[in-house]
Amino acid sequence: xxxxxxxxxxxxxxxxxxxxxxxDTPWDDFTGHYPTVAEAVTAAQAAGALSCFYxxxxxxxxxxxxxxxxxxxxxxxxxxRMQLRDLVVAGWLGMDDPVRSEESLKRGLADLxxxxxxxxxxxxxVRPSTSCxxxxxxxxxxxxxxxxxxxxxxxxxxxxxLMDLSRITEGRxxxxxxxxxxxxxxxxxxxxxxADVFACAGCGMAITDRHPHWPGIWTSTEREYGPCCSRLExxxxxxxxxxxxxxxxxxxxxxxxxTETSVPCGQCGxxxxxxxxxxxxxxxxxxxxxxxxxxxxxxxxxxxxEYDLVDCVYPHTPGGMSGPADEAIxxxxxxxxxxxxx
Length: 342
Ligand SMILES: [Zn+2]
Ligand SMILES: [Zn+2]
What we know:
The protein is an alpha+beta fold and 342 residues long. The chain is 23% helix and 19% strand. The chain has helices at 26-33, 37-47, 82-93, 98-112, 150-158, 184-192, 303-308, 326-335; strands at 49-56, 59-68, 71-79, 123-127, 135-143, 198-199, 206-207, 228-229, 241-242, 263-264, 271-273, 284-285, 293-297, 314-315, 338-340. The strands form 5 sheets. A 5-stranded antiparallel beta sheet has the order 1-2-3-5-4. A 3-stranded antiparallel beta sheet has the order 10-11-12, with no helix packed on it. The structure holds zinc ion (2 copies).
């Protein structure tokens, strides 16, 4: 036997292939609950509408069977995600008038659709949300009268012009690849429709100073950094600093003097101080990252609730003290999606 051919005994051991059954998607559950289109239409006629929120590699969607006087229709709504979703949430939190907020953000999303993808049957819509922040996306409808099976529905859905929009759901109408920041033109476009949207001059993320967990502090609504800007991190620094509205506000980061007092955080137990010169009045860990982030939201376990979640990151709160995020932290602990960061 040639030496180069391994014998069974000398062949390297490989772990057995892991064959896990694919997880059921919310759409699988929906069509399992309503095995035929006719059953779903009957249920929708009784309830007004049935909907199913789910996501895949290309977007976050809500499929809906809606009863109308003209007959049942199948609606697909595509939602913004990543940086564009953060802009919509930060913009909504930053405005006082909910009607003006919704309208300006809706018009901004409609205008974001590139001219060659605009179709009369696609409209920007507001759909019911599971939180205080509205769910705004782009919707298109199909009549259900000729669609007998769920396979018919899925095939018809694939041909919807709406599906061509998935490439702009991250906020890049030019179809450019993923980037950690939206182009400034996107902020300008939303402002032209009356939305109060702001970008950090350091990292380009959409920020608001009215996030309920971080009142008065410029915060991104994304779920890792929150009030922390990534501009120092890009230079290899561990230290956390805040977002800035203008480049003039971007002072060099500072260090603790060593005389600051600290107390243990009631949630994570880390020693925290509110006397760090970069974070006056904000509880941050002493040394290392000097981070104000205590925990981040983990998996909520429900796609629709996860999409609507207002929680970005959770602040440290010394034991025995109260803070603006107390209620959200209690809900996250109860729901099991409070994920410790340190
Ligand atoms: Zn920033
Ligand atoms: Zn903490």
